[in-house]
Design brief:
By secondary structure, this protein is of the alpha/beta class. The chain has three domains: 136 residues, no CATH class; 234 residues, Aspartate Aminotransferase, domain 2 (3-Layer(aba) Sandwich), CATH 3.40.640; 113 residues, Aspartate Aminotransferase, domain 1 (Alpha-Beta Complex), CATH 3.90.1150. A seven-stranded mixed beta sheet has the order 7-13-12-11-10-8-9, with helices on both faces. A four-stranded mixed beta sheet has the order 3-4-5-17. The radius of gyration is 23 Å and the shape is globular. The termini are far apart. The site of pyridoxal-5'-phosphate has 15 residues, from α8.
């Protein structure tokens, strides 16, 4: 019998709902592996660790400053990191190795609300008993990494889950699992290129981001990401949806697409869609915008590749293409981040020929087991759907953000877009992707506000290319709507300091 352990203040989860022995080994009961995983002493040892974890994390119940005394200081760790990497980190963040849902402890004993989670990786926050149990179970295996030549049952179960979810409302049928979002995108590009007989050009949206391999850095619309990189990718950029223009924006995008296709007939291997732009600023667009462009692509024989590395798992459906009901149009999709391992899924028609996709590693057994546990739990615990926990968390964010802006108009002057018009809203995003636009979207002021926020006890980040926004990727699996209150209280203290400095 396992105990029901409080995960974060006000939220309980039974860590026994995932990870029965058969779930881990996935093999015949008569194997030695099944005997080991099911051994009563082994199970009891895991239960003990989870119980002791709950005791150790019980003191973490809100943000707190650094503590005096003890071993090596935070600054010393930062210096060591800087020396090893040759450049300093963005934040003085070094985790101690424990947390409690949305709360994380750093090596200096400080505790912070983690609203960015490694840029959207830890959907159950820190030290979640269920995730720790899944990681412990996977660590009982014979190897750490699984590969394309030799793999265990765990990576197969993980791949099957992705295909089962993706194929519900799309033509996607197969998956190649890999170990970074950039590599999933590289694989997606190769699959599209092979399908189109080596067509050399790609179409991408302005402000897109796709990772930092040499090709993805060239396609991603950020000059800083390709400094010093010889340019050999041929990219045609398209305007993304402009909420100030509404339907006119759709007309203009179609006009651009038609011109691009006419300029280079038969030359495009794909149009790469980020259905919510992540690094680009949590920019959203209505279904009609994408349908119009995707239909045009299909008519011209241009594959539709959906980059869901940032959107996957954290919106009101597991795939953003399902949120927007676009499944029928998608030929290839890449996922990553919260899934722990990354992957590219494709239709029967796009299945690669032998030799196109492989690699030594596909990922660690722990990543597969924790990733599958996270996705299974989100699904089982009602995270998805219009009334699910993710929708409720986003609605609560909007409520807090609207009240916050109304209470502090001085901190929220209009944010002006590149056509010199004010943004229609100073908060937004979708699902577990939340943005707030203080200080007119000025980058320097937002970066300074983030530093102060970190000191005060909230970890966030920025996104956009101007106006800039404060970006939150909260741990949607464990964060409760009520947790926004302490987060916004800290925002209030931090913004008051940032405003006073300006
Ligand atoms: C939309 C998108 N695609 C690809 C990537 C690259 O993923 P990774 O950093 O795992 O290579 C990211 C990372 O932020 C992303 O947001």
């Amino acid at each position: 019998m396992r105990s029901t352990t409080p995960v974060v203040p006000g939220h309980t989860f039974d860590p026994g709902t995932f990870g029965e022995p058969s779930d881990v080994t996935q093999v015949l009961d008569t194997t030695a592996a099944a005997a080991f995983h099911g051994d009563a002493d082994v199970r009891a040892a895991l239960d003990t660790i989870i119980t002791r974890l709950a005791a150790a994390q019980s003191t973490l119940d809100g943000a707190r400053p650094a503590r005096d005394g003890g071993g090596e200081t935070l600054q010393s760790w930062i210096d060591r990191s800087t020396a090893a990497k040759g450049r300093g980190p963005i934040y003085p963040y070094v985790g101690s190795g424990i947390g409690r849902g949305p709360l994380v402890e750093l090596v200096d004993g400080s505790v912070k609300w983690d609203m960015i989670n490694g840029i959207g990786v830890h959907m159950f926050g820190h030290s979640d008993p269920g995730m720790v149990r899944a990681a412990l179970e996977a660590s009982l295996g014979d190897v750490v990494m699984e590969g394309n030549l030799q793999f265990n049952a765990e990576s197969i179960a993980y791949a099957e889950l992705l295909v089962a979810e993706a194929s519900k409302r799309s033509r996607l049928r197969h998956v190649f699992v890999t170990n970074s979002g950039a590599m999933a995108n590289e694989s997606a590009l190769k699959v599209c290129q092979q399908k189109t007989g080596g067509a050399p050009r790609v179409i991408a949206f302005q402000d897109c981001f796709m990772g930092r391999s040499t090709t993805m850095a060239q396609i991603g619309d950020s000059a800083g990401g390709r400094v010093g990189i010889p340019l050999n990718a041929m990219v045609d950029y398209m305007p993304f949806y402009d909420p100030n223009l509404g339907d006119r924006s759709i007309e203009m995008a179609l006009w651009h697409l038609d011109k691009t296709i006419a300029r280079y007939p038969g030359q495009h291997s794909c149009f790469i869609f980020e259905l919510v732009q992540g690094e680009g600023g949590f920019n959203t667009a209505p279904r009609e915008f994408f349908v119009a462009l995707m239909e045009r692509c299909h008519a011209a024989g241009i594959p539709v590749w959906d980059d869901e590395v940032q959107t996957f798992g954290r919106n009101t459906e597991m795939f953003m293409f399902d949120v927007l009901d676009l499944g029928e149009y998608i030929d290839v999709v890449a996922i990553g981040k919260m899934s722990q391992a990354c992957a590219v899924l494709y239709t029967e028609d796009f299945a690669p020929k032998p030799g196109l996709l492989s690699g030594t590693f596909i990922g660690s057994s722990t990543a597969f087991h924790v990733g599958r546990a996270a996705l299974s739990r989100l699904r089982a615990e009602g995270a998805y759907g219009p009334n699910g926990r993710i929708a409720a968390l986003h609605a609560a964010f909007r409520e807090h953000a609207a009240a916050f802006i109304a209470a502090h108009p001085d901190w929220f002057p209009p944010a002006i877009d590149e056509f010199r018009r004010p943004l229609p809203a100073l908060f937004g995003g979708t699902g577990g992707m939340c943005r707030l636009t203080p200080f007119g979207g000025d980058k320097a002021r937002i970066v300074r506000a983030l530093d102060i926020l970190f000191e005060e006890g909230v970890i966030a980040f920025y996104c956009g290319h101007g106006p800039f926004h404060l970006r939150f990727l909260p741990p949607v699996g464990v964060m409760e709507p009520a947790h926004w209150r302490p987060v916004f209280e800290i925002l209030e203290r931090a913004f008051a300091r940032a405003h006073a400095e300006a």
